[in-house]
Amino acid sequence: MTRFEDLPYRPCVGVMVLNRDGLAFIGRRTEGPEHVDDVHAWQMPQGGVDPGEDPWPAALRELYEETSIRSVEKLGEIEEWLTYDIPREIVGQAWKGKYRGQTQKWYALRFTGDEREIDILTPGGGAHPAEFAEWRWEPVDNLPGLIIPFKRPVYERVVAEFSRFAR
């Protein structure tokens, strides 16, 4: 069996979608081995980068696949990739045990559409399974307290970098 330290990180993208009032989109996950309680089941849209895919198109694809949102404008990005480890006890459950965590490229986006565009129950026109059971707009400063604790340092950095777009 591969040692935890020798496992690679899964390439991933994350998006902070802000509405016109400066609130961030968050969704409550429907399931997943990373989520260990109901309080910390909220997160911003994120997902894997396919082999050969560039991060920016991946971010737009993942956002659409999870929320049906297409009406956005790019506000900014964090230049470096942010990394987190998952707890060792769930390594065998998450991503079939192939990764020790994720390395994420984060983008800030402004939602420019009508909220009727948002569809988490049949995202992407029903072409993708629902990943969120519910969603809401949340003050940016609250985000680190809603995410699963092992992802909190990444969320703290994302909030620090992107909070200027919420003002």
Automatic annotation (TrEMBL):
<feature type="domain" description="Nudix hydrolase">
    <location>
        <begin position="8"/>
        <end position="160"/>
    </location>
</feature>
<dbReference type="Pfam" id="PF00293">
    <property type="entry name" value="NUDIX"/>
</dbReference>
<comment type="function">
    <text>Accelerates the degradation of transcripts by removing pyrophosphate from the 5'-end of triphosphorylated RNA, leading to a more labile monophosphorylated state that can stimulate subsequent ribonuclease cleavage.</text>
</comment>
<comment type="similarity">
    <text>Belongs to the Nudix hydrolase family. RppH subfamily.</text>
</comment>
<dbReference type="InterPro" id="IPR015797">
    <property type="entry name" value="NUDIX_hydrolase-like_dom_sf"/>
</dbReference>
<dbReference type="InterPro" id="IPR000086">
    <property type="entry name" value="NUDIX_hydrolase_dom"/>
</dbReference>
<keyword id="KW-0378">Hydrolase</keyword>
<dbReference type="InterPro" id="IPR022927">
    <property type="entry name" value="RppH"/>
</dbReference>
<protein>
    <recommendedName>
        <fullName>RNA pyrophosphohydrolase</fullName>
        <ecNumber>3.6.1.-</ecNumber>
    </recommendedName>
</protein>
<feature type="short sequence motif" description="Nudix box">
    <location>
        <begin position="47"/>
        <end position="68"/>
    </location>
</feature>
<dbReference type="GO" id="GO:0016787">
    <property type="term" value="F:hydrolase activity"/>
</dbReference>
